[in-house]
Amino acid sequence: PTIDDVWKILSPKLLNQIDSLYGYTDMLESELSKELENGRLFRLLAKLGFINERPEYENSSSWSETGDRYLLKLFRDYTFHQVYEDGNPVIDFAHVVECLNKLDVGVDEKILLTSRDEKSMLVLSYKDLKRCMNEAFNELMQKSNSNLYP
User: Fold this and answer.
1) 45-56: buried (b, 16+ CB within 10 Å) or exposed (e) per residue?
2) pTM of the entire predicted model
3) Which DSSP string corresponds to 25-37?
């Protein structure tokens, strides 16, 4: 047999194999994208968890729940602690993912944050919240690092 004969026999099989490899690569890329998304959201949740309501700084005027930290507390309530009119909790994963994605990107969209007693209402953007979160987290990291290297 000539090389042309061999090529005629193998080419359909090679094309099927290449097609399968492309399909597998697309699936892996999709799964990697999901994991990347999960990692981004986890980092945001971790930062918010580190910042909000730190018991060791409860009586500290430099780390009280005022200013940026208070805004982040209100954002946490807006994201996770909404209730229906009858007082029952709203469990809406899509709302949580949407809020965290907007915070991660820092979009200019404005949201209304309300205190738990509903006496204070603030309007600010996700961009402002992202700045607050990053500044508060960086301050916390500096305090943490100063304890590592006295």
Assistant:
1) eebbeebeebee
2) 0.71
3) HHHHHHHHHHHHH
First to last CA, the chain: 79
pLDDT (tens, 9 = 90+) of the chain, 150 residues, equals: 789 888 888 888 888 899 999 998 988 888 888 887 788 889 999 999 998 877 776 666 566 567 788 899 999 999 999 999 998 999 999 999 999 999 999 999 999 999 888 898 999 999 999 999 999 999 888 888 766 655
Distances in Å between the Cα of 68 and the Cα atoms of 55, 79, 119, 136 are 17, 16, 18, 7
Nearest to 129 by CA among 149, 93, 102: 102
Burial group, residue 118, by CB count within 10 angstroms (0-12, 13-18, 19+): exposed
Residue 49 corresponds to which tokens in the numbers above?
Answer: 């968890």
Paired with 125 in beta bridges are 110
Is residue 82 packed enough to be buried (19+ CB in 10 Å), middle (13-18) or exposed (0-12)? middle
**Cα gap 1→116, rounded to integer Å:** 83
